[in-house]
Amino acid sequence: MKTKKGLTLLAACVLMLGILGGCGGTKNNTGGEAQGNEGSKTVKLTMWGAVPPENGPQEVVDTWNAEHPETQVEYVRFVNDDDGNLKLDTALSTGQNVDLFVNYTLTNLDKRIKGGTALDLGEFSDYNIDEKMGADAATWKIDDKYYGMPTKKNALFFALNKDALDKAGLALPTAWTWDEAREYAAKLKAEGFKYGLVQHTASLVDPLDSALVKNGYVKADGSSNLDDPLITKWLETLNGMMQEDATTPPLGEQLTSKMPVENMFLSGESAMINIGEWLIRSSNNMTDFPREFTIAFAPVPRLADNAADFVKSGGLGDFISINAKSKNKQAAWEFLKWYADGGMIPMAAGGRLPSSNAVDQQTAISQLLGDHADTYDKASLEFVLYGDKTPTFVRSIAQEIVDMRAQEYEKYFLGSQTAEQTVQSMVKRHNEWLKQNQ
């Protein structure tokens, strides 16, 4: 009996060890790896981004995971607002599970670099970002270094109702001024539209930055250049369209009603919209936004008379960094290269076109337009996406200046101060800010 009890106890121990051993083979360790059945290790990566998983990211990581069993990626969404970025920054600073993350502004990137959480990609030598992404990539350099990779081509343009354009006898522009755009808006409104042009408030201010990027936010003597003559031209042109022509919504009405400008264009209330590639997400949704007209595209107009003096908002975006504290930097780098050079193609359906020249342009456009390609003027889309060689910029000024300017030009568009007073106030407040931040 004693021997039998001993054997029973031994068998129980063996069984328990077997169970523990089996459990130990799949339990994640703190290094982001899991032990496989044959003793191999699977690297676990976590990527944080702001795009909803169903709009492309989940398909991207599913494709990678199927092709790379040795490295599995999980996508975590954060909302690209102040609270969402704080959530990401907290996760980075407290050592939570973040291997790759997407930066949507230079301001947030700079903060993360200073916090030591964005890796200098200079330690990798097998991928030339400048060659793959082109000259626009350099706008994301800080201290001449890349702390991530810009993966998305930003495309900003005017979308136009081509049927109305043809009816009004108006040519589709390939380069034009705001004076010409104002004329188009008036002629198109006369075709029965409520407005000739609608635009998001974020796009509304792009002409101001276009002028200042080219001519300088600060003069040679160190004072504000917000009294550049093109700033007054922008104010008066847009106000004239709001108040005199009634071809674009008054800003006060747009702000208080939170006007759905995309809906207005797609429903036929407006003949033109100043927007970007994200329009295609809605214009392809024929269930919620049924339309019978063809959409054509034109470059954004310029304030400057001379085309050579024009730079437009755009550049590259979705700047993906590797966490400098990640335990799996090399694996994250391999995924990032794959993502940039074509792995991100499922994102194109949501308007996120790859910026790498390794991706075929026609493949990207086909993915972008999906089953509704025949409802677009494809030639004009190809031009604004790839043919227009106008230099681009990414807004990089301090948020305090962005907010200050908005406070002043909103007063003008709401009728509480003149254009001259608006410019004087902006210059005064900018100079005060410059003195405080020398």
Describe the structure.
- The radius of gyration is 27 Å and the shape is globular.
- The protein has helices at 2-24, 57-67, 82-93, 106-114, 129-133, 162-167, 178-189, 201-204, 206-215, 229-244, 251-257, 261-266, 279-283, 329-343, 361-369, 378-387, 399-413, 419-436; strands spanning 33-35, 41-49, 71-77, 100-103, 149-153, 156-161, 195-199, 270-276, 295-298, 312-313, 316-322, 353-354, 392-393.
- Strands 1, 2, 3, 4, 5, 11 and 12 form a seven-stranded mixed beta sheet that branches.
- A hairpin with a 5-residue loop joins strand 1 and strand 2.
- The model is unreliable at 1-31 and 34-39 (pLDDT under 50).
- It is an alpha/beta fold.
- It contains 18 helices and 13 strands.
- 44% of the residues lie in helices and 14% in strands.
Describe, in short, the structure shown.
The protein has 18 helices and 13 strands. It has helices at 2-24, 57-67, 82-93, 106-114, 129-133, 162-167, 178-189, 201-204, 206-215, 229-244, 251-257, 261-266, 279-283, 329-343, 361-369, 378-387, 399-413, 419-436, and strands spanning 33-35, 41-49, 71-77, 100-103, 149-153, 156-161, 195-199, 270-276, 295-298, 312-313, 316-322, 353-354, 392-393.
